[in-house]
Amino acid sequence: MAPAIKTASPASTPVKKPLNVGTALPYEARTALHLKGLVPSAVEDFSAQEARAYEQLRNKGTDLEKYIFLSWLRNTNLNLFYRLVLGNLKEIAPIIYTPTVGQACQEFSHIYPFLAPPNSVDGLYIPLNEVDNIDEIIQNYRASIPEGSEPETTVITDGSRILGLGDLGMNGMGIPVGKLQLYVAAAGLDPRRCLPIVLDFGTDNPKYLEDPLYLGIRQKRPEDAEFYAATEKVLNGLTKAFPGIFIQFEDFNTPHAFGLLDQWRDRILCFNDDIQGTGSVILAGFISAIKLAGIPAKDHRILFVGAGSAGVGVAKQLVDYLVIEHKIPEEQAKAMFWFVDSRGVITANRGDTLADHKVYFARHDNGDTQCKNLDEALEYVKPTALIGLSTIYKAFNEHVLTRMNEINQDSRPIIFPLSNPKTKAECTFEEAMRFTNNRVLFASGTAFPEYTIPESGEVRVPGQGNNMYVFPPIGLGAKLAKPTRITDSLIFAVSKSLSNTLNSEEIARGELYPRIERIRETSAQVAAAFIHQAVREGLAQDQFWIDLRVLDEVCKNMWAPAESVSQLIPTKL
Question: Quick count: other Cβ atoms within 10 Å of Cβ 485?
Fold first, then answer.
């Protein structure tokens, strides 16, 4: 059990200019700031502010309206926003990130003016035709932020593959903004030192090129050579201005996701959440599922539906786990996996040219058999585990789920519909429960409601393979230990640690992930494991962390919203 998290820490120290605390500003401060008579007379505590904000949130008619309200709140009263989020994380996380962020991105150009007061700076928008001026752009950003709040963590996207929604261009900015809110909420990174970035390199989506309100540049995306050259200029500028900044690549199209990671992972402190983060969190859930499935690890047959960057990244981490933890030779472990893409099961002899990232898992043992769809693959493979990253809504239909149950009568079927948002999910938790006679070991990429078994009244909680279990503690560990790079073994340590954070009650209920309400507790444990591994590998550069009780120190360094006005307002104004 992690120690209680104390947060009279670096988070809540006063700044030179008082933060906006709204109606909680004391009388003395109002006098010193010449606000007497300009605001209502009541001086409230934070709980009253939270109650009012929560009331307004609940009164919004749609999730998009809630998203807009919360964005405005974050940009006007940072402390109140995070108090509201942390006090209602299970309810608010699906609004500030998936699934609502998907709709927010689709509508981003239409709602942008209403997300923050005019001229508020909430990240960097870097157009393709301005990459040569990256130093000027960064200097403009520096001039807009308080002294001492230079960014330590950035999430960067080009909007080319947003969730399961495709190319949204500059509108993809909602993803870095949302991810960084989860870094703060889940792992206590300082929100003032988080920087969302969108590379506005155009879009191939005619919907946005023809939208008169679209706010990005109106041109098609560049060819690879120009893309990589422009990205290099941006990353060189960022790392020169902010040495040691932790960079998360997010929602690039599949070839560029792999290309950027391969190009930069040994040069700068970077991480790709779609490849490494998704793989890590699903591995953690899979470790838990294997313990409950009822058959040895070596006997599993794992069928992936969808062969993009996320799917292949997940599978490679599962192979590593089987090799390291279960001592299965790599070739034998690899042979436990089958992939279905738009043309059927991926084989070496099906007659098409495979993308580079698909070659590793292409089957060579199929002879003349070619399965052209999921139904044929089910009968050929007879999988014990079905993992969906296809973005095909209802791909796991009644027939598929029923067959998974029939195939696995001697074990519990593992079914992970991981596509986001909910409109792209392969199935729901209710469907998986109903069509497997409530036997399923389930984890999804998006949030689904609890399910009550009609016959018994028993309430089951769906596992959510949400990346917010892993990328925030990875970011926190990277900030603290300052490793030279993020290795596969660091990511593996994160997965193992997350699988070990389930408490006795969660294990007894057969759950695959800890409850989201414990996210800060589990993030501290996972970040501590990350730091331990960084020290063990000789990657950590901050000697302070090498000799300390890591978990205690991680907890102390997690930012939290202030508990009282005195933490934010200097004693003398």
Answer: 17
Q: Which residue has the tokens 């997350």?
A: 498
Q: What mean pLDDT is reported for the chain?
A: 92
Q: Could you say which of 66, 67, 82, 179 is catalytic?
A: 179
Q: Going along 407-542, which residue ranges are E strands?
A: 414-417, 441-444, 451-452, 459-460, 463-464
Report d(CA 535, CA 542) in Å as an integer: 9
390: its two tokens: 């296809």
DSSP labels, 43-78: ---HHHHHHHHHHHHHH-SSHHHHHHHHHHHHHH-H
Residue 272 DSSP SS3:
strand
CA 558, distance to chain mean position in Å, is 18
Sheet containing 270-272, strands listed edge to edge, beginning at the edge strand earlier in sequence: 124-127, 194-200, 153-157, 246-249, 270-272
Give catalytic status of residue 482 as yes or no.
no
For a pLDDT cut of 70, what percent of the chain falls above it?
95
Closest CA to 337 of 372, 277, 377, 290: 377
Is 37 in contact with 27 (CB distance < 8 Å)?
Answer: no
Report how far residue 451's alpha carbon sits from residue 375's, in angstroms, rounded to the nearest whole number: 27
Confidence check: pLDDT of 11 > 60: no
The answer to whether the peptide bond before residue 462 is cis (omega within 30 degrees of 0) is no
Strands 451-452 and 459-460: antiparallel
Q: Measured at the alpha carbon of residue 533, what is the angle toward residues 182 and 267, in degrees to the nearest 5? A: 75
- Tell me: the pLDDT tens digits for 297-342? 999 999 999 998 888 988 998 999 999 999 999 999 999 999 999 9
* CA atoms of 525 and 518, how far apart (whole Å): 11
Pairing of strands 302-305, 270-272: unpaired
Give the integer Cα–Cα distance in Å for 219 and 96.
29
Grouping H, G, I as helix, E, B as strand and the rest as coil, residue 17 is: coil
Residue 59 CB contacts under 8 Å (≥ 6 apart), including other chains: none
Which residues fall within 8 angstroms of residue 491, CB to CB, at 6 or more apart? 276, 279, 280, 317, 474
Residue 169 φ/ψ region, left for φ over 0, alpha for ψ in the -120 to 50 degree band, beta for the rest: left
Alpha helices (H) along 329-368: 330-334
Active-site annotation holds for 97: yes
Q: Assess contact for 400 and 316: CB atoms under 8 A.
A: no
User: 67, 82, 97, 321: which is the annotated catalytic residue?
Assistant: 97
